[in-house]
UniProtKB/TrEMBL annotation:
<dbReference type="InterPro" id="IPR004035">
    <property type="entry name" value="Endouclease-III_FeS-bd_BS"/>
</dbReference>
<feature type="domain" description="HhH-GPD">
    <location>
        <begin position="91"/>
        <end position="238"/>
    </location>
</feature>
<keyword id="KW-0004">4Fe-4S</keyword>
<comment type="function">
    <text>DNA repair enzyme that has both DNA N-glycosylase activity and AP-lyase activity. The DNA N-glycosylase activity releases various damaged pyrimidines from DNA by cleaving the N-glycosidic bond, leaving an AP (apurinic/apyrimidinic) site. The AP-lyase activity cleaves the phosphodiester bond 3' to the AP site by a beta-elimination, leaving a 3'-terminal unsaturated sugar and a product with a terminal 5'-phosphate.</text>
</comment>
<protein>
    <recommendedName>
        <fullName>Endonuclease III</fullName>
        <ecNumber>4.2.99.18</ecNumber>
    </recommendedName>
</protein>
<keyword id="KW-0411">Iron-sulfur</keyword>
<keyword id="KW-0326">Glycosidase</keyword>
<dbReference type="InterPro" id="IPR000445">
    <property type="entry name" value="HhH_motif"/>
</dbReference>
<dbReference type="InterPro" id="IPR005759">
    <property type="entry name" value="Nth"/>
</dbReference>
<dbReference type="InterPro" id="IPR004036">
    <property type="entry name" value="Endonuclease-III-like_CS2"/>
</dbReference>
<feature type="binding site">
    <location>
        <position position="256"/>
    </location>
    <ligand>
        <name>[4Fe-4S] cluster</name>
    </ligand>
</feature>
<dbReference type="Pfam" id="PF00633">
    <property type="entry name" value="HHH"/>
</dbReference>
<feature type="binding site">
    <location>
        <position position="250"/>
    </location>
    <ligand>
        <name>[4Fe-4S] cluster</name>
    </ligand>
</feature>
<keyword id="KW-0234">DNA repair</keyword>
<dbReference type="InterPro" id="IPR003651">
    <property type="entry name" value="Endonuclease3_FeS-loop_motif"/>
</dbReference>
<keyword id="KW-0540">Nuclease</keyword>
<keyword id="KW-0456">Lyase</keyword>
Amino acid sequence: MQAKGAGQVTEAHDSAVGEHVPAQPKKAKKEDKTPNPVKVAKPVKAAGAESRLGMVRRARRTNRELAEVYPYAHPELDFENPFELLVATVLSAQTTDLRVNQTTPALFAKYPTPEDMAAAVPEELEQIIRPTGFFRAKARSLLGLSAALRDNFGSEVPGRLEDLVTLPGVGRKTANVVLGNAFGVPGITVDTHFGRLVRRWKWTGHEDPEKVEADIAAIFPKSEWTMLSHRIIFHGRRVCHSRKPACGACPIAHLCPSYGEGETDPEKAKKLLKYEMGGHPGQRLKPPPGFPGEPAPPLGATE
Ligand code: SF4
């Protein structure tokens, strides 16, 4: 798989050298063993005074190119049903999906249904979810939402935003994750990665997640919302990090007005890539089919 931008660089290079250069015998290239080798396009800064139409076109093109870079983008929490996804999403606050995925197998083995979890001894529940941090507050949320599911929704996770946000510990972001990935309802997930990237790309100037969501919803059709969210979050976790974005190894650098905010040296930038992009395991212990990396290690294994 090759990012579009990489192809453009190759074409430009080929046309520049043209027919006057005698053909040279090609050196055998070293095979890149990375599941998803990064091909980087030449960065082009967006014009200072970009029109709204120009920004929308650039945004849609970025989405198309991200789809080529991450054809396997998916939610990075392991789950088998809507209840598990809801619980895992609540646990994912202030920690990594990896840590949640390493914690939930024991949790769901002990409390597979809302009734089971609602009847849990709080201290026992707290001990199981302890690795995810803020475990007392999270245990309270899980006990409260399980009891609410049992008492108000027949022990089923509701498929409507207005019902989901009535559950303890469930805000709009969590509700959208559950709707998008367990019910197929289009949703935009404005987490820390999503917000940071769309601001770097000048798709929005807002910090407030609801305003960000509204701005992005105005750029893309509903049918793109869920996958767009996965692609952006994938890119934020692997390449466009908060403190050290790997600009020199970024496959969409040519579409990014913030190119240069991070490391631009290609070799140094490559070392900053994470998960399968850096040749490391992913976050899911049970990754979906098509994921090119290794599964994450279980809790306690060397990471
Ligand atoms: S890594 Fe750099 S070039 Fe790539 S999207 Fe982030 S800021 Fe832009």
